[in-house]
Amino acid sequence: MPKKKILVVDDDIDLVEAMRLTLENAGFEVIDAQDGDRGFELMKSEKPDLLILDIMMGTQDEGFHVAYRIKSEEDISDIPIIMLTAVGQETGFEFDKDKDEDFLPVNEFVEKPVDPEALVELVRKNLGQ
Length: 129
Description:
This protein has helices at residues 13-25, 36-46, 62-71, 87-91, 97-100, 116-126; strands spanning 5-9, 29-33, 50-54, 81-85, 108-111. By secondary structure, the protein is α/β, with parallel strands linked by helices.
């Protein structure tokens, strides 16, 4: 059975590498990008099974723009998105997936720093494993 492919889009390369180790150890293939435009290109070309997306990269809300772009593209709109955020720490703003679902086109919200085991569980859950 081919490995499920996970795309990680985050400008924090140390965090990307930590997630890569965690996910590869759990049996996933990991590809990455450090900005939203490159991440979007990889979504189109690689069609990963799942996307882990940071919010604050070049701008404070870059991740949201990427998520909206993905959801507007028919061929990749159903790929699950786990959104990583330090927004709660940095702004005190809390996301509630149930309340904000219409406004946010993502499957999960995870506050940084992310617990490796919790991340693997979320990935598996969103892949239906």
